[in-house]
Amino acid sequence: MEKPTEQLFRVEGMTCQHCVAAITRALQARDQLARIDVDLPAGLVRVNSAAAAAELLRVLAEEGYPATVVKA
């Protein structure tokens, strides 16, 4: 893994705290040291992780939450 960087994603389909928990769990399964901040009303997920943005997008999509990069 690379040096941790902050990445911001717009995530579709987040509607509740269950969604937040599922997203957080999936991302931390990929990178246990990731720091994740979810802004549910805005539909944004800020991730500080050593994983590449493409990998995090894949994890989110596999969990059922398609996303796009806002800032990598």
Radius of gyration: 11 Å
β-strand number = 4
* Global outline: globular
Quaternary class: single chain
Q: What's the SSE blueprint?
A:
Elements: E1 5-11, H1 17-30, E2 35-39, E3 44-49, H2 53-62, E4 67-71
Antiparallel strand pairs: 1-3, 1-4, 2-3
Observed structural traits:
Heavy-metal-associated_CS; four-stranded antiparallel sheet; HMA_dom_sf; 32% strand; Alpha-Beta Plaits; 72 residues; metal ion binding; metal-binding; 33% helix; alpha+beta; HMA_dom
Task: Provide structural commentary.
One of its GO terms (molecular function) is metal ion binding. This is Copper chaperone. Residues 5-68 form the HMA domain. This protein has 72 residues and is an alpha+beta fold. It has a single domain (5-71), classed as Alpha-Beta Plaits (2-Layer Sandwich). Helix content is 33%, strand content 32%. It contains 2 helices and 4 strands, in the order E-H-E-E-H-E. The protein has helices at 17-30, 53-62, and strands at 5-11, 35-39, 44-49, 67-71. A 4-stranded antiparallel beta sheet has the order 2-3-1-4, with helices on one face. The longest helix is centred in the N-terminal third of the chain and has 14 residues, at 17-30. It is globular. The two termini are 16 Å apart. The relative contact order is 0.33. The mean pLDDT is 94.
